[in-house]
User: Which sequence fits this backbone?
């Protein structure tokens, strides 16, 4: 009786949907043919248990890297589709016996699953392929109308993922079916993983087989004792690897750096669509099985999905319709004269601008005769070593990066010391306050609260030069305060001057330097200037910094200048001025 009642309820709901979607169901004949070939009448099996494992590496330094696309896809599936369908804000909880983060729930097949980001209610890919396919689903249903689902994100690192899967299966008495393609009540396992042999965004199901060079899959096969489990492979390969029929990375590519690196600008733009696409493929897998999900993954692809369905998932905003960033350029030694020319020109322009601002933003009683030669020599040598070392270690492209933010601040400090302009010492004080907070939280708790220091943990930044020459974030502000105390450098309008400098420099960089470059020999993408600033600031856990899209320069440049300087300079100034007044020092607040 219960089964009949549920079936009647499904039919009643489906009839309303069929009429509502009659206008949108007139798709191409090819779509109808796909659905006719793949939607087959199948027996119903209640209470099927399916385990979906997302592969990746734990820890902040691996967040949003290519190797962690499995983590990203499963997390997105849980917090968007599953949470909406179940009506619960489900969260992953650490389970020691499973060596990973786990959540379990029961989910039913949805013909009309609303989501706050959807423009209108949505069916799965089969029902949307044609009206005939949807009518057939309404008539015959799906193989698995109700599924007991478990999601597992191993915390054992990629190469030991099998330990987590085996622990979960032993704890929950999981028994895998011998044939992953069969539709029955036996337990199933699906592993979501990255695949460098597929271009970015291409997704393929695989019912069984060897590891294919993926160490996480290899360890799972070893630990569970079988290759008979399904995989959803999400492509993270570089598109230019596959031009002209090539099927893999070029010789000499540092594969570990590629998979442990973060996605470039184009890929980040497409990431919301890719995660929505994996959502739909996982929905097909849960209720219709591996075979039908495979057919749709092979016949559709991300580009076709984006063309047909992307607007159904998220409302179009001003920033979402901006043009994509240009393709990363390959910078070589031939570009050295150009890079040096723009570096010199940029620093000359900054020097001229700050001298013009001296009449407007310097304190009236600024000391024009102060002299700190030892500090000037130290900062000069430090800056020169930073440029030389980074150029030696990274190559020509690093000269473009020297034009940005804290690197220029070192130059301005030297300029302020030798030209007796103490107001310059605090005009570009950087993000010292955030670094102090992060350094203290790392010592006490082992993590970065604000995220300001997080970029040093990324694989591409693990070098002596990156770490050593980042220390100026710690000692820079105390030196500036020591120099400017009693000399007219610490005053409120330095915030305004800093905003003007940041905007001018960002505009110069955006107009004259590449948006992002591809590092010779490693295929690693470096984000430069405005884009690089966005890459840095987006790691900082301050929601205000993420309101605007960095691909819209006319909006983002002043936004970065004002908000970035308020966070970087405004708070430190307020704090230091308060301490100075409390201790009855003499900072000059003449403006």
Assistant:
């Amino acid at each position: 009786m219960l089964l009949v009642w549920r079936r009647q309820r499904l039919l009643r709901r489906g009839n309303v949907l069929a009429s509502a979607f009659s206008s949108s169901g007139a798709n191409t004949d090819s779509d109808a043919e796909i659905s006719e070939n793949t939607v087959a009448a199948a027996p119903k099996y209640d209470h099927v248990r399916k385990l979906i494992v997302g592969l990746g590496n734990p820890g902040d330094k691996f967040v949003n890297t290519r190797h962690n696309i499995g983590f990203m896809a499963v997390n997105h599936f849980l917090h968007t589709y599953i949470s909406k369908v179940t009506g619960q804000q489900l969260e992953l909880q650490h389970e020691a016996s499973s060596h990973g983060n786990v959540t379990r729930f029961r989910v039913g097949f949805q013909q009309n699953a609303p989501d706050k980001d959807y423009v209108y209610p949505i069916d799965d890919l089969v029902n949307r392929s044609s009206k005939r396919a949807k009518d057939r689903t309404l008539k015959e249903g799906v193989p698995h109308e109700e599924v007991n689902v478990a999601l597992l994100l191993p915390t054992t690192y990629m190469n030991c993922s099998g330990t987590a899967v085996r622990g979960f299966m032993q704890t929950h008495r999981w028994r895998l079916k011998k044939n992953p393609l069969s539709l029955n009540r036996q337990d199933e396992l699906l592993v979501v993983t990255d695949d460098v042999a597929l271009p970015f965004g291409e997704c393929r199901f695989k019912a069984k087989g060897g590891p294919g060079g993926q160490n996480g899959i290899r360890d799972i096969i070893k630990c569970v004792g079988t290759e008979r489990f399904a995989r959803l492979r999400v492509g993270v390969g570089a598109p230019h690897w596959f031009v002209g029929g090539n099927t893999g990375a070029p010789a000499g590519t540092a594969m570990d750096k590629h998979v442990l690196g973060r996605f470039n600008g184009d890929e980040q733009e497409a990431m919301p669509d890719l995660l929505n696409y994996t959502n739909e493929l996982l929905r097909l897998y849960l209720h219709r099985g591996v075979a039908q999900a495979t057919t749709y993954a092979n016949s559709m692809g991300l580009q076709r999905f984006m063309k047909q369905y992307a607007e159904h998932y998220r409302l179009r905003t001003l920033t979402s319709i901006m043009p994509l960033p240009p393709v990363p350029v390959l910078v070589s030694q031939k570009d050295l004269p150009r890079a040096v020319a723009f570096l010199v020109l940029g620093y000359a322009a900054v020097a001229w601008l700050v001298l013009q601002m001296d009449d407007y933003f310097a304190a009236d009683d600024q000391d024009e005769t102060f002299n700190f030669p030892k500090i000037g020599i130290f900062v000069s040598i430090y800056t020169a070593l930073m440029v030389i070392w980074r150029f030696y270690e990274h190559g020509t492209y690093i000269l473009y990066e020297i034009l940005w933010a804290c690197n220029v601040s070192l130059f301005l400090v030297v300029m302020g010391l030798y030209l007796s302009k103490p107001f310059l010492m605090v005009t570009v004080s950087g993000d010292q306050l955030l670094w102090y907070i992060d350094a203290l939280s790392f010592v006490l708790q082992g993590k970065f609260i604000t995220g300001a220091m997080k970029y040093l943990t990324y694989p591409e930044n693990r070098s002596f030069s990156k770490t050593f020459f980042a220390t100026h974030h710690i000692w820079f502000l105390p030196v500036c305060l020591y120099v400017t105390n009693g000399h007219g450098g610490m005053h409120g309008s330095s915030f305004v001057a800093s905003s003007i400098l940041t905007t001018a420099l960002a505009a110069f960089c955006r107009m004259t330097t590449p948006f992002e470059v591809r590092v010779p020999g490693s295929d690693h993408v470096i984000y430069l200037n405005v884009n690089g600033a966005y890459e840095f600031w987006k790691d900082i856990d301050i929601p205000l910094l993420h309101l605007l899209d960095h691909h819209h320069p006319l909006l983002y440049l002043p936004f970065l200048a004002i908000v970035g300087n308020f966070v970087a300079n405004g708070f430190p100034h307020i704090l230091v001025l308060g301490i100075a007044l409390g201790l009855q020092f003499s900072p000059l607040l003449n403006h």
